[in-house]
Amino acid sequence: MFRAMAAELRDFYRQVRSASEALAKPLSPEDQTPQSMPDASPVKWHLAHTTWFFETFVLEKALPGHAPCDPAYRVLFNSYYNSVGEQFARPQRGLVTRPGIGEVRDYRQRVDSHMEKLLTRGALSDELARVALLGLHHEQQHQELIVTDLKHLLAQNPTHPIYGACNAAGGGATSGEIGEDNGSAGRGRGGGARIRGGAADASGSAESSDGAPPLAWRRVSAGLREFGHGGAGFAFDNEGPRHLAHLHGFELASRPVTAGEYLEFMADSGYQRPELWLSDGWAAVQRHGWRAPLYWQQDGAWFHYTLAGLAPVHPAEPVTHVSAYEADAYARWAGARLPTELEWEAVAADTPLRGHFAEHRRFHPAPASEAAPAAECEMLQLYGDVWEWTASAYAPYPGYTAPPGALGEYNGKFMANQLVLRGGSCATPARHIRATYRNFFYPDARWQYSGIRLARNSEQ
Ligand SMILES: [Fe+2]
What we know:
Layout: H1 3-24, H2 43-62, H3 73-76, H4 101-121, H5 126-155, E1 217-220, E2 223-227, E3 243-247, E4 250-253, H6 259-267, H7 279-288, E5 296-299, E6 301-306, E7 309-312, H8 324-333, H9 341-348, E8 387-393, E9 419-422, E10 439-441, E11 450-451, E12 455-457
Parallel strand pairs: 8-11
Antiparallel strand pairs: 1-4, 2-3, 4-12, 5-6, 6-7, 8-9, 9-10
The chain binds fe (ii) ion (FE2).
């Protein structure tokens, strides 16, 4: 590969690798070792697995005879690549106390040293340079998981620990370190949430009194359009091929649903009314006893755990940590529906890529009022803050085939039973998101920063 491209890739490599370490820096070894549920992994595992990716898919190919840093890591830190070989059981990742965090740090440094030499010399083939670039976008995905998995872990602790890398989130405490009892820090500030007017009803723009801008609707007329990634720049294989699709006329809400609006749904017995729910969603409500978004708790007013500690629910901020079932039920209650992923992309394609991302170190969605709209139906928070559930099944685009080899397992084999989310969140690195980006989770998942944007049909 050309040296100029290699230098660019090396700079990106340094930036991404150091960003992962910055996320871990405020955490103790104890913070980085356990996992709180099978879906979430220890921080230490994320740091090692992203390194395993470079060792397995780049170094082993670029350096014939490369002696593995530790043969056991090939199994311990293989996530789901059957083509590579055996994997350690995912639900038990938190039981792996050895290697410790120091050894994982050494592992990172050894792999970094090899990668640095290869990138500085421009010694990677074009194909391996593409794999290295994939490895960096892969690591950015894991940076988001470090945040969301850590949040789920810390939320189990009744002392409401504060993540030291977090800037003022959600009106909660702004200082202190993990381990401090912040149980009272968020309380008494802001007075908690109140149920107010301004529901996102389908009758049009509603004046919202909870501090969020009034909800407006962007109308998009019916027509044939192109979707998916087709230009220059990196994209995952699941974002293509670019293809034509016809959309009926629709309208997309100008901002995400707020916590205040969601409180109205709760107050209107939203969780107790089966007619609002998909069958699987109603079953999930009964099975899990859902009565509010994940991390919410009621003590008079509603509070929720944030990475800045326990905080009152701010009615103007986007509701987050809801499943697709809750998003769908809310939309039905509001007389609207969730957008399809192509409807979302049709609007995102001409929307500037602005929002609150991981670099803001907020790790909590911001009220839309902090980004006042220039026009009535300007899209607010389409990117960043909260991922937006869509009604679209995660399925291959027309003409998609998974790439050959082990990396074909990256995306293609997950195209069943999951739904697409769009737009990125407050835990997504800013350089990681784009209009064609397709995230996917099972519809009952709630530990990601997942929120709701409404859509509705239009006659035009
Ligand atoms: Fe991974």
